Each structure stands twice: as structure tokens, then as C-alpha cells.
Amino acid sequence: MPLYEYFCEDCKKFEHLSKSYKDKLTTCPKCGKDVKLLLSTCALKFVGSGFFVNEYPRSKNDKRDNKETK
To answer: Considering the domain boundaries, does residue 61 fall inside one?
Structure first.
């Protein structure tokens, strides 16, 4: 379910969890005035040793520690 951020002149910034990407608000649920859809960043967190290090082969000239050969 997508989470959208909106801006209302009276209520200021708020978030709305939609059932689909087509289900976007045009009016504020609190006061009924027009709202603007805001562009926002998504939260993304990489945990562990990393996708790049684990999934891509290393070149012969790579100077990083190679755990497989130790």
C-alpha cells in the first residue's frame, strides 16, 4: 500500500495510506479543502555486508579484502 504525503493550507502536512496508487486524495479529510500531493523520499536501509560486495564478482586488480580466499 502506498503512503502519500499531502499539504493542506489549513491542516498543513499529513500522510494518507492508500489502497492503490490510483486512490489519491483531492480534498482534505479533516476540513474538505483542496490538497496538493507532495514529493517525498522513501526510507531505505541496507543491513548486512552489502549487496554489491556479495553479489558482484571482483576484478583481479581489486584491493579490497577478499574473505573467500583467506
So the answer is: no
| Residue 7 falls inside a structural domain | yes
- Average pLDDT in the chain: 76
Query: Quick one: pLDDT at residue 66?
Result: 54
Is the confidence at residue 51, as pLDDT, over 60?
Answer: no
Q: Give the pTM.
A: 0.53
Q: Give me the domain span that covers residue 51.
A: 3-55
How far is residue 55's CA from residue 67's CA, in Å, rounded to a whole number?
13
Residue type, 34: D
**Close Cβ partners of 25 (under 8 Å, ≥ 6 residues apart):** 4, 6, 16, 35, 37
The whole-angstrom separation of Cα 16 and Cα 32 is 14
Is 24 contained in some domain?
yes
